[in-house]
Request: fold
Amino acid sequence: MSGYRQKNDITILKYDRDGNVMWIRKHPTNDGNYLIPILSQFDAANNLVIVGNYSIQNYDFVTIKYSPEGKLLWTRIFDQGGTDRANSLYLDESCNILIAGYNYNTLRGGDYMILKYSPEGDTLLLKYINGQNEQAYDEAYSALMDKFGNIYVTGNSENTSSRPDFYTFKLSPSGNIIWQVRYKDPPAPLPWINIAYCISLDSSYNVYVAGITSGNMTGPLVSIKYSQITGVSINPETIILEMQIDNFPNPFNPVTTISYAIPQDGNVKITVYNSLGAKERELVNEYLSAGNYEIQFDGKNLPSGAYYCILESSSRMLTRRILLVK
Reply:
């Protein structure tokens, strides 16, 4: 359990199953500042991760990690200038920490903010996503990761009419946009607004988004299901921005999942070469429709080392360096 006292510290209490206090920890700030816990989760190792609002001059947030025994493992303050706000906390099976929210500064306006920490508190990814309008108000409210490390985010983003739409997208583990989709209901003139607050993923990788669509913030509630068979996409508003290739995990032993995006229909080939330029495996060689795809590469019969996965289409070629470590 966590809370705050007089707006200048976070207090964490751990109880046993009988309600007896096992330990109490306080995380203070300087006098005059405030620190209020807003999000908390346990990771796979039963460490406690807390995210709280934090303020010195601007509004920022802090991430704190405690061991099951109450030892403070690390603290990270997120201050990028302007206003920084955390709305979502997600921990994956590897104890990586994903935070999504909002960043505002005078140059970009308000943007989606996606932040990923390693279990040790190192920054693995920091990305800002702007919507259709510069200097507009865009805010992420919910985010999660799949077992491949892909990131799914939803929230609201102003459209060209300066009204919020549901704005949902998928990022590769390295932060590239794989697909994005906007939703507004009804497609009516002002003053209608649409705000997505929740995102979920089922075992078949279908994406569910829920929020409100209203002229006065009173409803109705809206739920949307996006199909994701080899990737999301047969939706007229889903946009594949460019050809992309990624893999996760990397390094790997001995299997890695290669994800790739094709912006237009055409012949597609994926080939794996070793560091000497010799061909090791042809994974794909077929005509594909525009969309997102995944395929596994198994290197169990190959020696450790660097390999090069080359994606070719009718108009472009991309190379991804993958590392097999046994």
Q: What stands out?
A: The first strand starts at residue 2 and ends at 4. The two ends are 42 Å apart (CA to CA). Residues 229-238 have pLDDT under 50 and may be disordered.
